[in-house]
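2 proteins. here.
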Amino acid sequence: MIHDSITDCVGGTPLVRLGRLFPQPGIEVLAKLEMLNPGGSVKDRSARYIVERGISDGMIRPGTHIVESTSGNFGVALAMVAVRYGLRFTAVVDPNASRTNLRILRQFGAGIEMVRDPDSAGGYLHTRLARVQDLLAEDPDAVWINQYANHLNWETHAVTTAREVIDDCPERPVDVLVAAVSTTGTLHGLARGLRRVWPALHVVAVDAVGSVIFGTPPGPRMLPGVGSSRVPELFTPAEIDRVVHIDDAAAIRGCHRLLRQEAIFAGGSSGSVVAAVEEILPQLPRPSRVLTLLADRGERYLDLVYTDEMAIEHGELAYSSHP
């Protein structure tokens, strides 16, 4: 198949059986490699879907200025889609943004608005959102994507990701879905799409220790891509059967195990879901088929997860023998 643009390459990601990492009899763990989307993450799906729906509905037009509070994968995905459709994009970020992501955003030509004043909670979320409102007031062509409240965020996965999984598993259903949460759009959309065909699906949300989504106390979190300092408007707790909280250390160990045993070089939230699957496996009936998502690639975490110091600290061998 020959595609007409990079956004046409979004989706169609493969499923891989994690049989080396989880060799338990009667348990099959499948991972959907969302890291293989062209922009490097699962967020390519929602960025493409939301922008294309906006164009179709007339909310996004030539000259529209897309604005979003993000310095992570969604920002990179929006920057890529904005170039494809000739749109302006500004990411509102804070000092915690990684230098790698900021450099990627600049390469795509995105505008970057850096806020530096902490909010009343000691973080930057409310400061970033206030700056978004300023940009909307200053520019009549500005449109806020608002991934935490935009129903198209979860609809993306109900329409695309779930359908791909169902098509790839014709012989038997998935019994358990294990997915990391931040906006909760990926988890809810995938679960809703899968439950249309497999209503008995058991849904496990993987949250970070220090995240407030499920009402637990706020705390410091090192890894991006999992957890949130606010409760997303999309969040529907009644649709989730279980939540597993994973701390940074366990997530980092999960990343290293995934790389060492499956040769999959993935980002921080992938380590979180690996740790969560390991935690719930003893309670699962046999046989069980488990589905998880590996949301992004490991390259953007080289200075955070994959340093030699981290490898030694978490009981793994350093990968390079060269000085």
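next one coming up
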Amino acid sequence: MSTTLLVVQTLNGLQLGVLLFLIAAGLTLVFGVMDFINLAHGVQYMLGAYFAVAFYGLTGHFLAALLLSLAAALALGLLLEVLVFRHLYGRSHLDQVLATFGLILFFNEAVRALWGSSPLSIPMPEALSGSIALMPGLLYPVYRLAVLAAGLGVAALLWVLITRTRIGMRVRAGASNADMVSALGVNVRRLFMVVFGVGTMLAGFAGALAGPIFAVEPSMGDNFLILAFVVIVIGGIGSIKGAFMASLLVGLVDTLGRSFASDIFKLVLAPASANQVGPALASMLIYLLMAAILFFRPAGLFPAHGQ
């Protein structure tokens, strides 16, 4: 285990963490404010990546493709809220799960029909290509650092929006007691639309940022959806602070665990056994972490007030 590899994998874990936060932030607000289970949230991450591919093909410019994909993700989120989601408010969680799972199947097949099943990619922005020396012997891609900085910047802006603005006050109140917010005269339907739109846009932003790093392919959002649910359970449903801290924690545990589990087990096991046990345990680490945290803090690390 070298220091250089440890630093690289730590940065990779933080980058994964900020992408998870962009997905989990909208998911935890939707779940916390509306008590709505949206399994299609991972689809919105996938569509953000495909929108970026499509708009890059039209414009040939990464920044333009990123901004247009954000607008498209927001428009799609609002459209889905009007056509599908608002008809599920107040219904049972089973109805919500079945309906949003149907959306997963629909959009996964839709992107296969439009773009095919082969993985696609977005070219690395020229201004962010190449690597930068972080320490002697350590070169790290500039684009990955830019993704990390963008995710942290969005997290800071979202914190300001939630904690320092009137609409943020209503969202926090809705996450604590939506019925009381409605009784006080707040237009809950409009609040729900705003939350859905922002959540969809954040997930689309994460997909667009991930395009130059990961393969853009159907069902690419499914694994991120599972990780996002782990994040909101660990952080606390409805809590932006919890989603941020848990995202970084999950990103680091998952990345470092997959990188170093075998090396750690070689300290106590034979190399052949360690190479078998390490990867198997590494894939379980975040779920073991979730179980341990819920044992001591059933509401999560930073539950929303009133939860």
